[in-house]
Each structure stands twice: as structure tokens, then as C-alpha cells.
Automatic annotation (TrEMBL):
<dbReference type="InterPro" id="IPR050086">
    <property type="entry name" value="MetN_ABC_transporter-like"/>
</dbReference>
<dbReference type="InterPro" id="IPR003439">
    <property type="entry name" value="ABC_transporter-like_ATP-bd"/>
</dbReference>
<dbReference type="GO" id="GO:0005524">
    <property type="term" value="F:ATP binding"/>
</dbReference>
<protein>
    <submittedName>
        <fullName>Polar amino acid transport system ATP-binding protein</fullName>
    </submittedName>
</protein>
<dbReference type="InterPro" id="IPR003593">
    <property type="entry name" value="AAA+_ATPase"/>
</dbReference>
<dbReference type="InterPro" id="IPR027417">
    <property type="entry name" value="P-loop_NTPase"/>
</dbReference>
<keyword id="KW-0472">Membrane</keyword>
<keyword id="KW-0067">ATP-binding</keyword>
<keyword id="KW-1003">Cell membrane</keyword>
<dbReference type="InterPro" id="IPR017871">
    <property type="entry name" value="ABC_transporter-like_CS"/>
</dbReference>
<keyword id="KW-0813">Transport</keyword>
<feature type="domain" description="ABC transporter">
    <location>
        <begin position="2"/>
        <end position="246"/>
    </location>
</feature>
<dbReference type="InterPro" id="IPR030679">
    <property type="entry name" value="ABC_ATPase_HisP-typ"/>
</dbReference>
<dbReference type="Pfam" id="PF00005">
    <property type="entry name" value="ABC_tran"/>
</dbReference>
<keyword id="KW-0547">Nucleotide-binding</keyword>
Length: 250
């Protein structure tokens, strides 16, 4: 479902991604671990063409992201087509990124209405269903500032689901939460994983990774150092850097 091949990304002189290859099968969960600054967010953002890569290709469900081929040249897609592709990817950020002037329900309804030109009245029942599903159905009319961090993040997850995306990307979805609110958000993500969503989750929650990941990928310095099933990467890492990192976050 997701295919990342030979991806390089520079910010000026800084090479942040140094040749990343990553495949995620349909229905599979990949957890990305790695130290701060190792390129995890840049990789997720590249999958969604929020960052333009300097080299390499990204495909989602077989479709080249951000570009189209003409002869042997690649041309960047028009904004409209980029937005259409982006609507196939649900993105959940560390800091929720909800619209503060919209209620929970309006936050969820917004994308299908503006990106897919669906009717508000038609989207609303589905949006309410999604809020129920993430356990904040009774908060539909609340504004983000009236919600706890855990509730806001669950609204953000409902919003990401509203476009019925092919894949879900989570960038440290619980890092900004008070410790007692982490569990309720992880539970929602676990349930989505059980239901067969294809997802990539950047997190430092090792226990959670062990529970839901089909594949754990450890990134350091813009390279994949090690990847494999949780039992290998988390419990029996081959590389010293992986071992050192895991012992630090446990
Ligand atoms: P991580 O998510 O693993 O903490 P990031 O992908 O956010 O790492 O960042 C990787 C490196 O790229 C860091 O050194 C960061 O400072 C740098 N970086 C990220 N975004 C930008 C940007 N827009 N401009 C310049 N440097 C950036
Ligand atoms: Mg990051």
C-alpha cells in the first residue's frame, strides 16, 4: 500500500533522509522509532508530499505521489492533484492541529465538505459516527479549548478518518499529552489497527509498538538502521544504536 524507494531529502546543506526504503503492506502497521532529529517527521511528511523529496519515489496504492511521468521525466503534479492525493492519507499530528474556531463536529465535517465537495448534511451523520467511534460522541458541539488533550487528539483522529483514507500516518500522537491521557488515544489507534487500517506510527511508546506493530523500523541519522518484527527489533536488536535507544526510552 505504501512504497518508499531511495528517498533523499535535504534542507539546505543538511541531508535529513539519506536513502530510505520502506514498504507497508495493506492492513499492516509499521512503527517508526528513532532519536529526535533523525528524520522521522520528514519521512512521514514526504509520504504525504508535504515535503518534496530530492531523490527517490513514493507510491501509495500504486500511485506515484506528487509527480507524474511523462516519457522518462517526472513533472510535479498541479496543486489540485496534490490535494486529491493528500485526501487519501489521514495525518495525525503531535499537537492535534484542530481548527480552534470550529466545534469537534465541524472539524470532522470540514475536510469532506471542502476537499471532496460533499454535502454537509450528508457528511454530518458519518462525522457523528466517527466521533462516537473514538469515544467523544458527546463532545460533538464542544470547541477544542473545552476539550482535554486526549479528547482533542481523538477528534483529530476522527477528522483524519473522515476522508476514508487509504493510509493513516501518526506523528508522535501522544507526545504532547499528559501521561494519564496517553492510554485513551493509544486505545483508539489500537482499535484502528485491529480493524485493518494501513498505518505508519511514529512513537516512543515501546509497549504499544510491541502490541500493534507488524514491523518496527529504527531510524537514526536519516537512515534505517534496523527493521523487522517487534520481537526482533525491540527484544533482540542487532545494532548497538538500536539497543542504546530502546534502553533509553523504556
Ligand atoms: P524527527 O521527527 O525525527 O525528530 P525531523 O524530521 O523533524 O526529525 O527533523 C530532521 C532534521 O531536519 C532535524 O535536524 C531538523 O532540524 C531538520 N529540519 C526539519 N524540518 C526542517 C525545515 N523545514 N527546514 C530546515 N531543517 C529542518
Ligand atoms: Mg518529529
Amino acid at each position: 500500500m505504501i512504497d518508499v524507494k531511495g528517498v533523499h531529502k535535504n534542507f539546505g546543506d543538511l541531508e535529513v533522509l539519506k536513502g530510505i526504503d520502506l514498504e507497508v503492506q495493506a492492513g499492516a502497521v509499521t512503527v517508526i522509532l528513532g532519536p529526535s532529529g533523525s528524520g522521522k517527521s520528514t519521512l512521514l511528511r514526504s509520504i504525504n508530499h508535504l515535503e518534496k523529496v530530492d531523490r527517490g519515489l513514493i507510491r501509495i496504492d500504486g500511485e506515484l505521489i506528487g509527480y507524474r511521468r511523462r516519457g522518462d521525466k517526472l513533472h510535479e503534479l498541479r496543486e489540485r492533484d496534490i490535494l486529491r492525493q493528500r485526501s487519501q492519507v489521514g495525518f495525525v499530528f503531535q499537537n492535534f492541529n484542530l481548527f480552534g474556531h470550529l466545534t469537534a463536529l465541524q472539524n470532522v465535517v470540514e475536510a469532506p465538505v471542502s476537499a471532496q465537495r460533499r454535502k454537509r448534511s450528508e457528511v454530518e451523520p458519518f462525522a457523528r459516527e466517527l466521533l462516537e467511534r473514538v469515544g467523544v460522541g458527546e463532545k460533538a458541539d464542544a470547541y477544542p479549548r473545552q476539550l482535554s488533550g486526549g479528547q482533542q487528539q481523538r477528534v483529530a483522529i476522527a477528522r483524519a478518518l473522515a476522508l476514508k483514507p487509504k493510509v493513516l500516518l501518526f506523528d508522535e500522537p501522544t507526545s504532547a499529552l499528559d501521561p494519564e491521557l496517553v492510554g485513551e488515544v493509544l486505545d483508539v489507534i489500537k482499535e484502528l489497527a485491529r480493524d485493518g487500517s494501513t498505518m505508519v506510527v511514529v512513537t516512543h511508546e515501546i509497549g504499544f509498538a510491541r502490541e500493534i506493530a507488524d514491523t518496527v523500523v529504527f531510524i537514526d541519522g536519516g537512515r534505517i538502521v534496523e527493521s523487522g518484527p517487534p520481537r526482533e527489533v525491540l527484544d533482540n536488536p542487532v545494532h548497538e544504536r538500536t539497543r542504546a535507544f530502546i534502553s533509553k526510552v523504556l
